Batch of 2 targets.
Target 1
Amino acid sequence: MNKPADVATSNRSLPTTRPGEPCTYEDAELGFRNHWYPAMFSADVRETEFKTLTILGEDILFKRIDGRVYAVRDECLHRGFRFSAKPESFTKNTITCHFHGFTYNLKNGDLIGIPSDPESKLIGKLKLHSYPVEEVKGMLFVFIGDIDPPPLADDLQPGFLDTDVHVVPFHKEEVHSNWRIAADSASEFNHVFMHKDDFLLKYWKQPLPLVEMPKGDNPYEGYVPLEGSGPKGFKDVFREVIPVFEYKIECEGEVGVVRSAFNPQTEQGSIPFGQMEAVLVLPCGLSIGPWGSEPGSLAGEYVHYEWYVPIDETHHRYIIAWGKKVSSEGEALKAEHDVRTRWSYFEYEGFNKSDVLANEGTQRAYSEAGYAFGEKENLSRIDGYCLMWRRMAAKHNRGRQVRYGGKK
């Protein structure tokens, strides 16, 4: 039997990384450490209520106390019992381990009491890892890392935090694929081929092409890097390409024709895709727009936001929100009603659900034993979007995430 240790030492510290040392994209199986990630919606955590999530392989316990949400590691430092298996709280600011009664301050993670050894030297020395949390735009963001957190705005899509933007978060689900599969094709327009039959495009009269053809041989042409202060990633303005709205397939004398759901060459539609832009930023967030608020509308009003938050090596959390510039509370309420009663259904069921199908259908190829991430790919000049994202992500991430207690 091991001799009990009454000292505040542990070999189960969280993995650390040094600022300014990005990891390779291939090594980012669990995501990038030292970044802000969306966790859930504000409405998901009510006062005094415990919630638990796994983010980047780390189990995190959340609780709202006097309006503010706090987060700590969901594991007792004594013998590893998960608090969320049977959470016990005898004061609003504490969590008590159901197994042996070790009690911690939720606001800072400090061990404050042990029923069987109230004079233990561990008290005041042991400390749960606590996670910075920021609540904005109806969403909760958590910082996963070891460095002093940078401003939240540095890890969010440009404009998301603007005071005149009303954000309506409306969808989240667990997807059975690694987060990188989703990020690699976030708004890459060749993957729009799979959306050709989606009913959102027909309803919205949205003239998206089947695919886009590059004008030159440089796969990075048309993508604008974002490398200054603020978010890091790139912008796609959809103008340096040739849209394809119809494609003929010929094989052994038979001819088939594939057409986009809505063809602007024959029908009056809404905003052409060439007037929109998409931005993909670290660690895992996309914005794309503007979109019309009514079918066929040429007035761009809504911006689509989504995130691919790593859960573990083979799952990510897909989160969607819409934003709209407003000048009054009445306009904000109208946008809220419009998104929740109409667009949330059309957007997910009529479009984004196809993305989930594609990402889950691709997971097996990226997780086969003996292959590194992407080793089975055959990329070409049409894959500039994916290549640009991987280049920017590898250059500007703040470190590699590893399993809790693992080695880099």
Target 2
Amino acid sequence: MRVTMVVSTRLTMIRSSEESITASRKKSESMSAIYLHNVTVAPEDIDGQGHVNNVVYVRWIQDAGVAHSSANGWTPSRYQQAGIGWVARSHHIDYLKPAFEGEQIVVRTWVADFKRVSSIRRYRILRASDETELAVAETNWAFVNLVSRAPARIPPEVRDCFEVWTE
């Protein structure tokens, strides 16, 4: 009887470990820490100096963050239905090299940190043809209740959809 209990416990531990590995594998297959968002520089993105206007980079990083969230199951409409969402507290962008009309751009984005009611998202903006780094950016996002507009704790069902990645 005692041996049976040990074997039974061991089988339970093995089963539990296998379930954990399977769940972990499914989670990593369904989400990626780094999301790649592709953009083509449009004529309207160009400023009087002949390169991409700096405010366009803000649009690109916002679009990349929304696309990453949507790919992980949290679309704008899902946030709206849940009555929760993100608002930008600050953006910081370092412009390194210019981008020009017609170029293919890749915005790499990831969640770098979660706090109780905020998150840091980082970005690297690259020219696709040669992977030249054009800009690096960071956004501090606050999580809010959309009705009261007050800060809200980030629920586990949101937090668990994103893998935090640090460079």
